């Protein structure tokens, strides 16, 4: 790839927008990056103290990558959904352990709440909206109160408030394709419809804001954000009474394996067409490192890390979370060996021990360093022959193709190899370029 591409329009930003990151590096996060395999817990292979040790290994790896934000899905550890908490008395202990470990590592938590586990909803219910909506709201309010940091009924040892709450997961997927393990019981077209999700969104948001008026509420991540199907579902949901006012931040998901950034452009277009007045967080994105497509391999995935982050930042996204941290370790259940396993940044060791970098992990780490201290509102894509360039205020991120270098380019760091050298006429993406200091 190396064709010239017009810069993506970046919407006007507000300094007070909810969840605004302190720097461009703070935009980098990882989805489900702190977790314990469910199979290990169910098999009794991990004691409570062992769970904490595994969580700490993940936070150490995330800090090493330079990630700043981590997301907990209701379908993964600590399995914090209304239905799971009613069945498993250990849910709150695990939620406390997760929040404590994440905060001790200096990471920001984004916590999903919802009535059912977000990836397997139809395995738990044939009716998406809880029959006792008031009881569900009381549970949501209790969770938020425990982590809001106001000194009333807080978790013991809470270090800081948990401010970011996401309401469920990928409702447009559940409404258009049979949910995993659904057993054919549910007609997808009648399950988690835009109207049904809007009912849960409005109720959940009211409970969250009632417990913590400073909380930032995210919509559920729209799975098909880059397709007309996902955009249509979102528009129909937003048309429901109170839905558009019930969340502060639009959450989108973005998965693809094409060798290009057209899907990123389509996801950004969905945002601008639906909620341009709200900040955008891409709470799940990634590309595989193995696939039947001939161009897909670990080196391609590494290049796409910078391409996706660069294009989304150029388009105005505030937070972007890669899916996910590491390949599933040996011995987990088949559910956790998902088709998305190879999207991870790290590979698990066959002999045990800490996971090791894939090429994608190395690029992610160097990208975080390149963006550290950069004001996110200073980011601006500039025209570049042969590729795409993001001006960072102190230099440029070459995130696609082989862009021609602007005047003042001084030093180039190859984000794949880490090699540093003087700037030439062009730079091969992904690369971080410093600007010659003004005299």
Describe the structure.
- By secondary structure, this protein is α/β, with parallel strands linked by helices.
- It has helices at residues 38-42, 48-65, 82-87, 91-104, 133-146, 171-174, 194-211, 228-238, 262-274, 298-315, 359-371, and strands spanning 28-31, 69-72, 108-113, 164-167, 216-218, 250-255, 280-286, 319-322, 346-347, 356-357, 380-382, 387-391, 395-401, 409-414, 420-422, 431-435.
- The strands form three sheets. It has an eight-stranded parallel beta sheet with strand order 5-4-3-2-1-8-7-6, with helices on one face.
- β14 (409-414) and β15 (420-422) form a beta hairpin.
- It is globular, with a radius of gyration of 21 Å.
- The two termini are 36 Å apart.
Quick synopsis:
With 439 residues, the chain is α/β, with parallel strands linked by helices.
Average predicted confidence as pLDDT: 92
Q: First CA to last CA: what distance?
A: 36 Å
Give, in spatial order, the strands making up the sheet with the most strands: 5-4-3-2-1-8-7-6
The radius of gyration over CA amounts to 21 Å
Instruction: Give the helix tally.
Output: 11
Structural class: alpha/beta
Beta-strand percent range: 15-25%
Total DSSP E strands: 16
What is the helix/strand order?
Answer: EHHEHHEHEHHEHEHEHEEEHEEEEEE
**Would you identify the regions where 5 or more consecutive residues have pLDDT less than 50?**
none
Main sheet properties: 8 strands, parallel
């Amino acid at each position: 790839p190396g064709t010239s591409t017009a810069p993506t329009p970046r919407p006007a930003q507000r300094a007070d927008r909810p969840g605004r990151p302190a720097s461009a590096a703070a935009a980098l996060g990882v989805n489900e990056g702190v977790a314990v395999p469910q199979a290990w817990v169910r098999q009794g292979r991990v004691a409570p103290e062992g769970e904490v040790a595994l969580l700490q290994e993940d936070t150490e790896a995330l800090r090493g990558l330079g990630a700043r934000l981590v997301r907990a899905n209701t379908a993964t550890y600590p399995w914090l959904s209304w239905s799971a908490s009613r069945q498993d008395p250990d849910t709150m202990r695990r939620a406390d352990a997760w929040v404590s470990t994440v905060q001790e590592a200096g990471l920001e938590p984004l916590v999903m709440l919802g009535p059912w586990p977000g990836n397997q909803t139809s395995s738990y219910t044939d009716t998406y909206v809880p029959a006792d909506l008031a009881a569900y709201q009381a549970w949501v309010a209790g969770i938020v109160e425990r982590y809001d940091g106001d000194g009333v009924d807080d978790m013991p040892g809470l270090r800081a408030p948990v401010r970011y709450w996401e309401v469920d997961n990928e409702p447009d997927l559940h409404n258009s394709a049979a949910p995993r393990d659904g057993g054919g019981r549910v007609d997808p077209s009648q399950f988690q419809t835009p109207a049904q999700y809007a009912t849960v969104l409005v109720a959940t948001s009211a409970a969250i804001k009632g417990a913590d008026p400073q909380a930032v509420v995210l919509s559920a991540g729209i799975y098909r954000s880059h397709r007309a199907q996902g955009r249509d579902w979102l528009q129909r949901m937003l048309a429901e009474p109170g839905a558009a006012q019930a969340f502060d931040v639009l959450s989108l998901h973005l998965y693809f394996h094409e060798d290009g950034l057209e899907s990123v452009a389509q996801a950004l277009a969905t945002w601008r067409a639906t909620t341009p007045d709200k900040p955008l967080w891409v709470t799940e994105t990634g590309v595989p490192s193995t696939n039947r497509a001939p161009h897909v391999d670990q080196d391609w995935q590494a290049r796409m890390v910078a391409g996706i982050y660069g294009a989304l930042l150029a388009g105005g996204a505030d937070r972007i979370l890669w899916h996910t941290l590491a390949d599933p370790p040996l011995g987990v259940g088949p559910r956790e060996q998902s088709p998305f396993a190879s999207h991870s940044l790290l590979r698990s060791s066959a002999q045990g021990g800490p996971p090791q970098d894939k090429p994608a992990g190395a690029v992610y780490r160097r990208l975080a360093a390149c963006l550290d201290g950069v004001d996110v509102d200073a980011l601006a894509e500039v025209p570049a022959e042969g590729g795409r360039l993001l001006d960072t205020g102190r230099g440029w991120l070459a995130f696609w193709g082989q862009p021609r270098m602007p005047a003042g380019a001084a030093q180039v760091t190859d984000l794949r190899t880490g090699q540093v050298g003087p700037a030439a006429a062009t730079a091969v993406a992904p690369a971080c370029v410093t600007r010659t200091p003004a005299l």
